[in-house]
Amino acid sequence: MDRKILALLSMPLALLAVAPAAAASLLDYVGECVPFARAASGIQIYGDAWTWWDKAEGKYRRGYAPREGAVIVFARSARLPLGHVAVISRVVDDRVAMVTHANWSRIDGVRGRVEQDVTLTDVSDAGDWSAVRVWYRGSAGLGSTNYPVAGFIYGGREANEVTSRSPDYVAALIDVYAR
């Protein structure tokens, strides 16, 4: 068999080996944020997380407000040289939302695991979601870093597992407003 044909046939198998769909549940996935966000949201964009914003132009609706099922795109920064993407699981109020994402906190000493319904707060001066803080397991609360945000990509599908049946809204609000 021709080597080129063999290589083409083996590519889908290689992709299956790393795809989140191979996990029994999206919440069992261990890996990078991009494949997780793609599987959880249905938004089919490829490349580093920070590139998603520009790649979505003309393919998906984009905006500057969180909506359930949307992907938030963290811009590239010193702390996030590849950016980050996460799926909005709940909108709590106009400055607080929850995300489900992969590869943020260390869980049992391991990076790459999924965290469900994590608190996210808008810390921008204008209240426009251009900068956020994210709950970090290592600090057992909101981290102290403000992360720049490119915006939100809409138009995927909602995954049932992105949010729990009873997310802790009160804890999310306490995380943000009690500090």
Summarize this structure as a short list of keywords or feature phrases.
single chain; about 180 residues; alpha+beta; six-stranded antiparallel beta barrel; 4 helices
Task: Outline the low-pLDDT stretches.
Answer: 4-19
Would you state the CATH class?
Answer: Alpha Beta
What structural class do helix, strand and pairing data support?
alpha+beta
Overall geometry: globular
**CATH-level-4 superfamily name:** endopeptidase domain like (from Nostoc punctiforme)
Distance between the termini: 65 Å
Give the helix proportion (percent range): 10-25%
Radius of gyration computed on alpha carbons: 17 Å
- Biggest sheet: strands side by side, in what order? 2-3-4-5-6-8
Overall tally of structural domains? 1
CATH fold descriptor: endopeptidase fold (from Nostoc punctiforme)
Beta strand count: 8
The arrangement of helices and strands along the chain is HHHEEEEEEEEH
Largest sheet: 6 strands, antiparallel, barrel
- Helix count from the secondary structure assignment: 4
**Average predicted confidence as pLDDT:** 82
CATH architecture: Alpha-Beta Complex
Strand fraction = 25-35%
Structural description of this entry:
Strand 5 (114-122) and strand 6 (131-136) form a beta hairpin. Strands 2-3-4-5-6-8 form a six-stranded antiparallel beta barrel. The protein is globular and about 40 Å long. It is α+β, with helices and mostly antiparallel strands and 179 residues long. It contains four helices and eight strands; from the N terminus they run αααββββββββα. It has one domain (32-177): endopeptidase fold (from Nostoc punctiforme) (Alpha-Beta Complex), CATH 3.90.1720.
